[in-house]
Amino acid sequence: MKLIKLNMTIVMLVGIIQIGYAQKTKPGMRSPIQQIFKTKLAQPIMVIFNEQTYYVEKGMWYAKKKTIYRLIKAPVGAPLKTLPEGTEEITSNDTLYYKYKNTFYKKEGTRYVVVKI
């Protein structure tokens, strides 16, 4: 009887562990870790701001360390020459802003600057 209980306990523990390793995303979707880190960007725009180098691809901002690009929040004050495709215009307190995903830009001269709203 003790042997049966021990075997059942082991089977249940193995089952619980396997659930932890099960696929957590739908087939074809990227896991969150794959969305945060990349080893290659297709056509990034390099932006140098406050002595830091950033890379922008499809409106997403990345910082590079060695061979890995890490997804980051856009640094406030960083400039872009052109806005990403799909940017929305938003007016707040009589000021025109541009929003792409969770990043807001304001036009300053011929460029667009990341702002915090």
What report would you give on this structure?
The protein is α+β, with helices and mostly antiparallel strands. It has one domain (2-115). It is 21% helix and 41% strand. The protein has two helices and ten strands. The strands form two sheets. Strands 1-5-4-3-2 form a five-stranded antiparallel beta sheet. The chain has a five-stranded antiparallel beta sheet with strand order 6-10-9-8-7, with no helix packed on it.
Largest sheet: 5 strands, antiparallel
Low-confidence blocks of residues: none
Order of helices and strands: HHEEEEEEEEEE
Shape: elongated
How large, in whole angstroms, is the Cα Rg? 23 Å
Instruction: Please report the distance between the alpha carbons of the first and last residues.
Output: 66 Å
* Strands, count: 10
Strands of the largest sheet, in order across it? 1-5-4-3-2
Protein topology:
Elements lengths: L1 H19 L11 H5 E2 L6 E5 L2 E6 L2 E6 L2 E5 L6 E2 L7 E5 L2 E6 L2 E6 L2 E5 L2
Antiparallel strand pairs: 1-5, 2-3, 3-4, 4-5, 6-10, 7-8, 8-9, 9-10
